[in-house]
């Protein structure tokens, strides 16, 4: 593994096969299957509903208001990776825009997640690039400071290790540690199957009170039919 103080170039990634299987699972289901772990703070959302992403995460730590290290991260990433950029929640400058999106797409990057702000959002939406962020700002950034690429970081209440699996959809973003992906995927698929069966029973006339045993809980509190 080649590394430096700032950049680690080679990382272990979640396998492509597991990534493809996890793409079909909603983030809420993954979060529940993971025991309520891995969800980012709820202010990180896609710039357009319907955007989804799934892939090994490349964590980036940049100085607030500067995007020099993010430009480098584009060319450290491999096809299918997702950039995760920690700006310390700085939303008064759009460190990412249309040009960087074009560069990322040429590299085959699967998307971007950040607690910072971006710009050129209409252009990015037209380009079909999945982008999840905290804010939007037309202000520019400096290109003078370094940061880190592919170093572990704490982001949105979650500890992130390079190569972990990150998944995003209209509801939010969740990360699963690389070692935990097979087990979480199995539980998530089981949960999806269970919920499909519950929906079938609801269509047949049963109630959520019956199916989840809530009637007994309500009776215990004095609420009866």
C-alpha Rg (nearest Å): 20 Å
Question: Judging by the overall fold, what is the CATH architecture of the largest domain?
Answer: 3-Layer(bba) Sandwich
Task: State the order of secondary-structure elements, H for helix, E for strand.
Answer: HHEEHEHEEHEEEEEEEHHH
Please report which band the strand proportion falls in: under 5%, 5-15%, 15-25%, 25-35%, 35-45% or over 45%. 15-25%
The tally of structural domains comes to 2
The helix count comes to 8
Kindly, what is the distance between the CA atoms of the first and last residues, rounded to a whole number of angstroms? 65 Å
Number of DSSP strands?
12
Shape: elongated
- Flag low-confidence runs: none
Layout of secondary structure:
Layout: H1 16-22, H2 27-33, E1 45-46, E2 53-61, H3 68-76, E3 82-86, H4 98-107, E4 111-114, E5 117-118, H5 121-127, E6 131-133, E7 135-136, E8 148-149, E9 153-155, E10 158-160, E11 165-169, E12 172-176, H6 181-203, H7 208-211, H8 214-220
Parallel strand pairs: 2-3, 3-4, 4-6, 5-7
Antiparallel strand pairs: 1-6, 2-8, 2-11, 9-10, 11-12
Helix pairs in contact: 2-6
């Amino acid at each position: 593994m080649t590394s430096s103080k700032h950049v680690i170039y080679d990382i272990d990634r979640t396998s492509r096969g597991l990534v493809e299987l996890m793409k079909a699972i909603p983030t809420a289901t993954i979060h529940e299957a993971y025991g309520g772990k891995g969800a980012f703070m709820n202010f990180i959302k896609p710039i357009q509903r319907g955007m989804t992403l799934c892939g090994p995460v490349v964590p980036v730590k940049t100085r607030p208001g500067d995007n020099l290290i993010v430009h480098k991260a584009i060319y450290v990433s491999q096809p299918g990776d997702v950039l995760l950029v920690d700006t310390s929640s700085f939303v008064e400058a759009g460190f990412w825009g249309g040009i960087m999106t074009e560069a990322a797409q040429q590299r085959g990057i699967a998307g971007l997640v950040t607690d910072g702000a971006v710009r050129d959002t209409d252009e990015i939406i037209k380009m079909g690039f999945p982008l999840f962020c905290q804010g939007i700002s037309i202000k520019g950034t400096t290109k003078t400071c370094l940061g880190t690429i592919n170093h572990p970081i704490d982001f949105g209440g979650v500890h992130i290790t390079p190569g972990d699996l990150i998944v995003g959809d209209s509801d939010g973003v969740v990360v699963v540690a690389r070692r935990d992906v097979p087990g979480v995927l199995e539980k998530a698929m089981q949960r999806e199957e269970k919920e499909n069966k519950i929906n079938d029973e609801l269509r047949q006339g049963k109630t959520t009170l019956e199916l989840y045993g809530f009637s007994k809980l309500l009776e215990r509190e004095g609420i009866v039919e």
